[in-house]
Amino acid sequence: MIGLIIRRLGQLVLLLFGISFIVFMSMHIAPGDPATIIGGPTASESDLEAIRDELGLNDPVLVQYADYIKGVVQGDFGFSYQTAQPVGEAIATRLPNTIKLATASMIVAVIIGIFAGMISAMKQNSWLDVTSTTFALAGVSIPNFWLGTMLILAFSVNLQWLPIGGLSEPFYTTEGFKQLILPAITLGTGSAALIARMARSSMLEVIRADYIRTAKAKGVKQRSIIWVHALRNAMIPVITVIGINFGGLLGGTIITEQVFAINGVGRLMIDAIASRDFPMVQGTVLLVAAIFVIVNLIVDIVYAVIDPRISYD
């Protein structure tokens, strides 16, 4: 396991290096001039040239990239072209909101998905199975921006039960908890549908296994068969879906943050791309890549904990 962690951390460094190079080159190839955005419509050509010299935009692209990597190695991700705020500080300010939203959404997705998948598998071809399958299909098909808008209209505008958006209050307060409900449902529905489909498929495969039939023949209670014998083995592929989705949610819940006016990493990334804020785009993309690799590493470790037969030697 230690060897696996060391290998994955080495892969993380190489992955971040490659992604940083691709993103850096893509941003510089794309049309547009950051100096024009920073200087504004009233800036003269001499002003724009001074801005380019200050930012190092007149240097060769490879020289700019080398300077950027030197700063990253030292923990300096540069400054935002728009606000002059350090990139690391801006991300650290927005990341807690994304973490809260992603965690709440995944809790909703796991509870609904696993429960629906198990019920669907245990009651195969029943009305519960049909309802669960229909829910999974709808959850995958409905766009987040439409679902979020409908929830706002229903529960915020018409019924006035919940706030429209924002995550300005701590989640452990009543108001903060209310602010999380609609975004978490909006974001968690799609993941819940995927988890439900995977849980159903995996549970159906497990409950038909020989050791489950043996347990039934020995007179083991149905509850014990499901929770002790079947669920643990059925969870292995489900954990993969949970891990991948959670990594994606932490990487930036872009659409949901836009709909509910949440100042998270996803919204920060969109604003940075629109304003051609090179350092901010690169910093947020590196964060997303790092999160994906770390989450996948955690998933592999959980595999080994759940199923001792899995070995990474």
UniProtKB/TrEMBL annotation:
Gene3D superfamilies: MetI-like (1.10.3720.10)
A Pfam family of this chain: BPD_transp_1_N
Main location: membrane
CDD domains on file: TM_PBP2 (cd06261)
Molecular function terms, GO-annotated: nickel cation transmembrane transporter activity
Compartments where located: Cell membrane
Stretches assigned to the ABC transmembrane type-1 domain: 95-303
Protein name, UniProt field: Nickel import system permease protein NikB
Organism of provenance: Oceanobacillus bengalensis
